[in-house]
Inverse folding.
């Protein structure tokens, strides 16, 4: 499994770190290898980077129609995860849009209805940060009261288990 979590940077980071491995990642995923992309890792699955998605484009949620936020900074973003409303750490995360949603298992949505987390074949993408640690919340004074006490880690574990058919 290739796991690319959030917080790794931007397109410049991709060019420095992963661009030379683009074909290896594509071959790995095409041969059935699992890819988990969280926030930046979800963006990097898109056509500008690894280009491993079928009919799905990761795009900035803050630029989508009817978004409930237009600022990329850290926040407790409202989402619905498997039918339950909650918040999750957000830092300029992506919406997952396109006709390929019909071929995907959507796990979470943003308030505007855009997909926030999904599994498409052997690829799992999440726009927010279920991997977030307590110190992420302590870094921002307005986030301290939103720490999930490990509950989002359980959501992430269930998501990964589903990717492996468990």
């Amino acid at each position: 499994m290739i796991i690319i979590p959030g917080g790794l940077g931007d397109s410049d980071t991709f060019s420095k770190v992963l661009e030379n491995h683009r074909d290896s990642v594509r071959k790995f995923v095409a041969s059935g290898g699992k890819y988990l992309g969280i926030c930046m890792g979800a963006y990097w699955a898109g056509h500008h980077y690894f280009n491993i998605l079928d009919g799905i484009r990761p795009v900035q949620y803050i630029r989508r129609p009817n978004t409930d936020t237009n600022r990329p900074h850290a926040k407790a973003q409202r989402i619905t995860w498997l039918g339950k409303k909650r918040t999750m750490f957000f830092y300029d995360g992506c919406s997952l849009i396109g006709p390929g949603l019909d071929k995907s298992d959507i796990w979470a949505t943003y308030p505007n209805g855009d997909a926030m987390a999904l599994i498409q074949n052997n690829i799992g993408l999440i726009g927010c940060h279920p991997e977030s640690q307590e110190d992420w919340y302590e870094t921002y004074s307005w986030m301290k009261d939103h720490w999930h006490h490990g509950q989002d880690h359980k959501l992430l574990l269930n998501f990964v288990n589903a990717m492996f058919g468990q």
